[in-house]
């Protein structure tokens, strides 16, 4: 609906100019970005809170769940389990 109003108000050439301007601004905004900013932070194998992501020993990502503590361990205890 909003696009139709812009087209009616500005006409075909004006709408094209608005679209080109938006595309140009998106390109300029992304040109200053470091591609490393988009990579995910490494996931730890250790769990420190319920629901956080963890790395399972065999590779896939898991989720931290509360688990029974072993002898001598301080509560709370967590275990990395498969998400699937």
Summarize the structure.
Helices cover 36% and strands 19% of the residues. It is of the alpha+beta class and 84 residues long. Strands 1-2-3 form a 3-stranded antiparallel β-sheet, with no helix packed on it.
Q: What does the model show?
A:
The protein is of the alpha+beta class. It is built from 1 helix and 3 strands, in the order H-E-E-E. A 3-stranded antiparallel sheet has the order 1-2-3, with no helix packed on it. A hairpin with a 5-residue loop joins strand 1 and strand 2. It is rod-shaped, with a radius of gyration of 25 Å. The mean pLDDT is 77.
Structural class: alpha+beta
Proportion in helices: 25-40%
Major sheet: size, sense and barrel closure? 3 strands, antiparallel
Q: Mean pLDDT, rounded to whole units?
A: 77
The arrangement of helices and strands along the chain is HEEE
Shape: rod-shaped
Strand order of the largest sheet: 1-2-3
Number of helices: 1
Percent strand: 15-25%
Task: Measure the end-to-end span.
Answer: 42 Å
Low-pLDDT regions: none
Radius of gyration: 25 Å
- Strand tally: 3
Q: Topology, pairings included?
A:
Layout: H1 2-31, E1 53-55, E2 61-67, E3 77-82
Antiparallel strand pairs: 1-2, 2-3
List keywords for this structure.
single chain; 84 residues; rod-shaped
């Amino acid at each position: 609906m909003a696009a139709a109003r812009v087209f009616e108000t500005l006409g075909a050439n004006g709408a094209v100019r608005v679209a080109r301007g938006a595309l140009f601004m998106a390109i300029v905004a992304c040109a200053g970005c470091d591609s490393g900013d988009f990579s995910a932070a490494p996931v730890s194998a250790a769990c420190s809170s319920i629901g956080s992501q963890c790395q399972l020993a065999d590779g896939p990502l898991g989720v931290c769940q509360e688990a029974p503590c072993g002898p001598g361990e301080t509560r709370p205890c967590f275990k990395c389990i498969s998400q699937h």
